[in-house]
């Protein structure tokens, strides 16, 4: 039977005729009510501000089944005047009861892993046609690179540098890490990564040396240049190779995302060998990271690791708004003025396009809707959170078993790392990689790198928020029941849960979706499982596509760097020119590069 059509009523007030006296009395009552309401609104925090003062904290009983236990209820608060409200605020003016169960409830997914993950495995061995380093490397050709950004952005640069050295038939000098960025981390390569392992593991692929050799007792000075982003193999052959032949030593600056996604299969597999096998952390980092993982595992059978990006600088740059009123607008607006080239922010537009990181509260609600109860143990990797403990309060109320490296380890245990941002980031990277479930509120470098790594090593559960869809849901959550809300979250998150076949091969950044390096077991191919046959299977058949360039969908958006990628702010955004003037605006192979706003945020 067809459902009755909802009528749209006219909500304009209809005021009957009244006497002047009655009207005067009514006016006085109305004025008194508005005055008291205005006073009340000033004494209460904003309900969409992530740092709400909770009226109710979960103290429900342990156990993940059902919806029993106490419930988390956002406080009923008043809002700013209608003419000052954003679309984000207007949606919650009419507040209804939104009771969140402490238990996880039912889920259509296996929350802690994929049922078909066992059918896929990482495969990065080279083909028989891939020449050894001894046969591929030419004499007197040395490539140096200067990485850029935070630890994970530098990791992409190091990985791609090995591949570029291979393409140029050059010897790679151990990359120099970025020591001049916002973090001012003085660590060198050997203090983060096991340099001897790096050199020996890749010895059959690329010749690598720790420093330039001396010629006649002197070190040859490198010729410095920079290539545009997404530089192809042809780009390097035409642009850098002739310089190498003439100068013998070339140094490429700001080397991050300087290599195209489209490469031959053997080169893509080399990328995987570097990223997932050759880049091994130093022994102190590995030992401390394993301790942190062990301590999380001792608390329960499973744990979630959340990479939470909610720093003031990042929020200011994103142009997003989180309901903090004039205080938030003034604080983040002042930070945003540092970047002269940014357009005027449009918070509602940014949210609609899925560009805004989820707030801590939104992450908590998403996880609860997916089925994770309050008994779950949560490890949080984050920098400075805007609003501090007040902002984290809703997330901690939803998941009271809340930990970080600072709460798991003694101060003296972290002394070797705490003064170095890259080493601290390496510890977070290890715990996130070792977790049963990895969750992110953003799409930055660490989130991408870990998503790719977890796909390669067994498709461990990795949850990325479908921000575009969740935007409207969070906007209207006050007008629906918890059951309706959680059902929609589960629907919207299909395809964002880290299943083996979620992403089409070649789509997105290769470091996030290393499809060339993921193979399907033979017996799985013959399995008539309708749950995943017929969808995109993120694997490469090396016999069919051996040494061919992997095609990508014609989606330019995938080649654009998300400018909210970062852990630091590079205040030298508009740095111009190169030391040797080797860039040419008339280069026939490469498009001119946009101003390097991409370096503002990197993790």
From TrEMBL:
Disordered: annotated segments: 575-603
Organism field: Acorus gramineus (Dwarf sweet flag)
GO molecular function: glycosyltransferase activity
UniProt-listed CDD domains: O-FucT_plant (cd11299)
The name this protein goes by in its record: O-fucosyltransferase family protein
Alphabetical list of InterPro entries matching this protein: FucosylTrfase_pln, GDP-Fuc_O-FucTrfase
Keyword Transferase included in the entry's annotation: yes
Keywords linked to the UniProt accession: Carbohydrate metabolism, Fucose metabolism, Glycosyltransferase, Membrane, Transferase, Transmembrane, Transmembrane helix
Presence of keyword DNA-binding: no
């Amino acid at each position: 039977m067809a459902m009755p059509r909802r009528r749209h009523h006219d909500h304009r007030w209809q005021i009957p005729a009244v006497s002047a006296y009655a009207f005067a009395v009514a006016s006085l009552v109305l004025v008194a009510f508005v005055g008291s309401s205005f006073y009340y609104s000033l004494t209460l925090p904003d309900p969409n501000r992530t740092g709400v003062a909770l009226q109710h904290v979960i103290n429900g009983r342990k156990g993940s089944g059902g919806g029993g236990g106490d419930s988390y209820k956002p406080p009923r608060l008043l809002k700013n005047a209608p003419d000052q409200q954003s679309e984000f605020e207007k949606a919650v003016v009419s507040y209804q009861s939104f009771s969140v169960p402490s238990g996880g409830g039912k889920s259509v997914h296996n929350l802690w892993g994929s049922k078909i993950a066992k059918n896929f495995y990482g495969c990065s061995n080279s083909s028989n046609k891939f020449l050894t380093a001894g046969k591929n490397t030419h004499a007197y050709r040395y490539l140096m690179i200067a990485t850029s950004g935070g630890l994970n952005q530098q990791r992409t640069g190091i990985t791609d540098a090995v591949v570029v050295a291979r393409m140029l038939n050059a010897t790679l000098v151990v990359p120099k890490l970025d020591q001049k960025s916002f973090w001012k981390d003085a660590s060198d390569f050997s203090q983060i990564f096991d340099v001897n392992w790096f050199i020996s593991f890749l010895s059959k692929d690329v010749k690598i040396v720790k420093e330039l050799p001396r010629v006649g007792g002197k070190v040859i000075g490198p010729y410095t240049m920079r290539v545009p982003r997404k530089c192809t193999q042809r780009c390097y052959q035409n642009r850098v190779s002739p310089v190498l032949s003439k100068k013998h030593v070339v140094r490429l600056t700001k080397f991050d995302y300087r290599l195209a996604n489209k490469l031959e299969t053997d080169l893509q597999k080399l990328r995987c060998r570097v990223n997932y096998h050759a880049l091994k952390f130093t022994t102190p980092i590995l030992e401390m990271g394993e301790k942190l993982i062990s301590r999380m595992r001792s608390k329960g059978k499973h744990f979630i690791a959340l990479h939470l990006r909610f720093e003031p600088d990042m929020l200011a740059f994103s142009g997003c708004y989180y309901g903090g009123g004039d205080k938030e607008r003034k604080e983040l607006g002042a930070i945003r003025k540092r970047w002269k080239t940014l357009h005027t922010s449009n918070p509602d537009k940014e949210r609609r396009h899925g560009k805004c990181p989820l707030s801590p509260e939104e992450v908590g609600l998403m996880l609860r809707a997916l089925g994770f109860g309050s008994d779950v143990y949560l490890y949080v990797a984050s920098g400075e959170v805007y609003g501090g403990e007040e902002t984290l309060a809703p997330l901690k109320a939803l998941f009271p078993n809340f930990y970080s490296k600072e709460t798991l380890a003694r101060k003296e245990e972290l002394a070797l790392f705490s003064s170095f941002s890259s080493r601290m980031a390496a510890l977070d990277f290890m715990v996130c990689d070792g977790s049963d479930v990895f969750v992110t509120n953003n799409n930055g470098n660490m989130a991408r790198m870990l998503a790719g790594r977890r796909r390669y090593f067994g498709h461990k559960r990795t949850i990325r928020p479908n921000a575009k869809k969740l935007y409207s849901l969070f906007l209207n959550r006050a007008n629906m029941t918890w059951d309706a809300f959680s059902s929609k979250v589960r629907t919207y998150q299909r395809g964002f849960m880290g299943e083996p076949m979620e992403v089409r091969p070649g789509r997105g950044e290769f470091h996030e979706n290393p499809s060339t390096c993921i193979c399907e077991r033979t017996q799985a191919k013959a399995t008539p499982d309708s749950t995943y046959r017929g969808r995109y299977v993120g694997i490469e058949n090396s016999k069919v596509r051996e040494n061919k360039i992997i095609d990508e969908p014609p989606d330019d958006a995938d080649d654009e760097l998300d400018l909210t990628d970062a852990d630091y702010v590079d205040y030298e955004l508009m740095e111009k020119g190169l030391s040797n003037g080797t860039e040419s605006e008339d280069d026939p192979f490469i498009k001119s590069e946009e101003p390097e706003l991409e370096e503002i945020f990197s993790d």
